[in-house]
Amino acid sequence: MATTEPSHLDVVIVGAGLSGIGAAYRLSTEHPGRTYAILEARDAIGGTWDLFRYPGIRSDSDMFTLGYPFAPWRDPKAIADGPSIRDYIRRTAAEHDIERHIRFRTKVVAADWSTADQRWTLTLSDGGTLTCGFLYSCAGYYDYDRGHEPEFPGRDSFAGQVVHPQFWPEDLDYAGKRVVIIGSGATAVTLVPAMADTAAHVTMLQRSPTWISPVPGRDKIADALRSALPAGLAHQLARAKNIAFTTGFYQFCRRFPGAARTLLTKLSTKVLKDPAAVREHFTPTYDPWDQRLCAVPDADLFKAVNAGKASVVTDHVDTFVPEGIRLKSGKVLPADIVVTATGLRLQAFGGIEPSVDGTPVNLSEQFVWRGAMITGLPNFAVCIGYTNASWTLRADLSSRLVCRVLEHLDRNGFSSVVPRPDRVMTRQPLLDLASGYIQRSIGDFPGQGDRSPWRVRQNYVIDAVQTLRGDIGDQLAGTRAAKPAVVR
Fold it and tell me: Keywords on this record (predicted)?
């Protein structure tokens, strides 16, 4: 017998990726009596890890911190490939009975809060609607439908194939072909070694260098812990170790940028054994962590260059030509395939356009409270991970904060809450990185303030204490729903 899905839910989670599945776990374990659904625009679990299918796709954080604290990572590699991460997310959803709450091919395009009804009305892409008491966006901040593609002169004249990593063709054959990858971020440094063994040659073309650090592909300490201890305990200890290391290294880079530059340069030189090449191609003008640091497991990028299978060119594109790309220097890079690893586009809340009582809310004028809730939007939260550490560390804290807010509603008899500053604040960008993909669109997002709890820190230890232990009622304005009139 078919069942009808409810048209009203206590909580709606948007997105069935890494964050959304984690949010569902927290909600179902801490508030088992609440009804909820995960609305997923695509037809599969996994989010980013299901969408991106380019060669070599992998995490740029260790899986003991990118993975869930409640689901031990059991695979050998600490820096994992995309399919392994996707399987891990799906397995976690199945083990915790989350799958049945997911509504696939259900995209939220607009959300309107009704003050009178104290609920959200969600407009879906198929024209349907759904209402909920609390809306939690776990769709990340990337545009899944479009990548960033700058205009390249002469592109139509190129005789080969142009590919964007976000939409990698399943049947792309690059065996024995000359490949030029435009870019130097995490996607580019992943693609180069992954394609180098099969392609005739791979060239990474960058306008300017990026800080790149070789890291071990396996975590020997974690392996030792897993061989001696129960899986759950070993996972927690490895997670704590890696949190301490990444937090400490980030603080070291920010406080002592000169020493950090020296350290990273020495690491690159040790592997490449070519100081001149390191100075030209792997020594940025900006300081470490002004942009996100790229990690290369087992120095695979540098090894591909050393083996002559790949090369790095630092120059600017002048124009595409039939045989490849002509650079500003006049040199022509021959290519059969050009991969435009030129970055991503940001999109707030998965493209949801929020409004209150029919009036659109200008997100650029709002502030983020405790890294999750937003001024002007009652009973709404967004999940945004760290930029200097594993996404899931911050994401899990946000989900646990949402559970605390729901408890706050129950304890005080509120139907809704909205964060409100107690005084005027200076607005600062939500994501404080100089990366191009951030700078292009961050003005469309809510900002952070100049003090706690409006300041979005990049420190898990402090955030964990304040999120899980701090008072959350001091700057949340609550509303109690009017009792319905008694009909006599």
Answer: FAD, Flavoprotein, Monooxygenase, NADP, Oxidoreductase
